[in-house]
Fold each of these.
Amino acid sequence: MENYSPRLFEVYKKDIQPLLKEKLGIDNIMQLPKLQKIVINMGMGDARDNKNSLSQAIDELSIITGQKPIITKAKNAISNFKVRIGDPVGIKVTLRGVKMYEFFDRFISISSPRIRDFRGFSSKGFDGRGNYNFGITEQIVFPEIDYDKVNSIRGMNITLVTSTDEDKYAHELLLSFGFPIKELKNK
């Protein structure tokens, strides 16, 4: 198992790198854009009042990602929302390496086609630094989640962090992976 390499990483090395070299006009293979990490956030407005909901969300995100999430806590007190400093407000996971490629492969091939009324992700999710942000509204699009054991539908925000600072390079990288994203509009 120590020499295991994810399928999507092998595809990146064999097929995507030469394609990107030609398409982007980059000679040095080290300058090619690559996926660095995937950050998955799940906001929990009722985490302070409902500990059972928080523990179930942690279990579900652990099953989806294969890694235990950390609890994010409020940095500021907001009296209108009854939030104090240190209250749990969500959970997050940062995936790198093998787990990142395994999650990305499962998301592209299995989970994204299961999203209701799905026509591709918007190209407006780029942040100007080569990273892509998008949200999904239901955790039940992942086949690992047992629908009968879900007590509430939760959404999540997913950030794909790439090694490039150019949105167009990151867009080409995601398209070459087969990520379902619409055409990039020129700014």
Amino acid sequence: MSLTPSSMLPIGTIAPNFTLPCVTTNSYVSINDNIGRFGTVIMFICNHCPYVKHVNSTISKISNKYSQEISFIAISSNDIVNYPDDSPENLKKQAIDNQFNFPYLYDKTQNIAKQYNAACTPDIYLFDSKLSLVYRGQLDDSRPGNNIKCTGNDLIYAINCLINGKINERYQKPSIGCNIKWK
């Protein structure tokens, strides 16, 4: 495991378009077909990373709470040859076990992760309804073993700012996690 911070894509960046296979439905999902009323959260996650395991239940709770306002999409881009725990079959199990109510996509070519400049898992992006980036970074200050409760307060604050038409003036801290497992 290599501890890696997110790369902090510039605010205002337009979300790169994608259509990827969903591990739970075996259908293809496009970002353009999944834009939320106020915005869309794109999360690069995986199955094996302890940092993702630490936040799975929190992202599930947040996505359930905001499902009427915000769309959520998870993407795994890890190399499954060297990290078979991140195979589509295991991602599907992760989605079911954590009651994800959002599409969980597999980026086999890793092109989408590169277009988003994703660096770690979890790597979280919040785009407005026009797919312009308004937040990127950590879920909250909690990390495995630091005894801080995982609440998702940084992402929740950004979502609430977006819904209420306010500018998020808080410092946006990079996410920290395992590096994306490049081929």
Amino acid sequence: MAIFGLAVPPVVAAQDFGIMNSAETINRGNFKLMANPIVVFGEGNADNDLGVGLVAGYGMTDRFDVEGKVAIFDDVTFFGADAEYWLLQDEPVDVSVIGGFHAGRSDGFDTTAFDFTVLGSGLVAPRLELYGGLDVSRNSVSDADVTFTTAHLVPGIEYAISPEIDFVAEVGLALNDDSVHYLSVGIAYYLR
């Protein structure tokens, strides 16, 4: 059990994909491709970890999209998918909910998780949106009776460089002991 406890922390401490978008969903019939480096800040004596997230998404309706995701770090790779529904649209603050799942694969232990995010955003300038979300993930370690929850408060910005390209940046603030702070920036490209 002690060996198990020493091997699990790298998997537990890794951040998966982040939120990396405002509360607007992908426009109906459009595709989204995105790449975002992620810096996960180590706690205590742990080193910071650098990874990259890759996303492909599709707008199913005016209020609903789906995305497939991969996040690659030195010691773990995450694969996942989510669906986002835009609850409040064309209001001073837009609100969406996101539900999904992901699996983490590492040399030592594998994890599976269910994810839930509540996200709000609003324009502060013609091409600049501020967003904030609560991102929660319930994780299980495969082949072990270990579960843990990560929770982050995530403020971020989305800036429209052009109609096809957005710059996105966010900070994930850890809300519990099983979570770690992270920073991510990225570029989203939309095929319209």
Amino acid sequence: MKKVIIKIRQAGDCKDIALPKYMSESASGLDLRAAVKEETVLTPGKRMLVPTGLFIEVPPGYEAEVRPRSGLAVKYGLSIVNAPGTIDADYRGEIGIILINLGEEPFIIRRGERIAQMVIKGIVRAELVEGNELSETGRSSGGFGHTGTS
């Protein structure tokens, strides 16, 4: 497994919150925790920018993707509005998680609670080449369910 160095800084008032870590040997995502000052209620249908108190330095050629946690999604309908959220290599601001409650009950966000996961990924940059024709395929312009469900 390839490793990459990610520098991390934690806000001074967040030292009581555990730093991100992989929760199992083969996990691809580091769990991110809420740095709310007090319990915060996210009501159904609403979204909120939740602070993490974390600042990172991703090296050039990589990005950090912020993704929902599957357990929170299935149990409470909690997701991330812009999933996956991208943290570019040149961003140095605080990591914020745009949570949305798609469930039927209010969700209480507690300080230090694991609310999202962050995956470090390599970047490939495209070189766009303009042309008048694109190659034909069996699918061509079919999309949005054109193959059915069974």
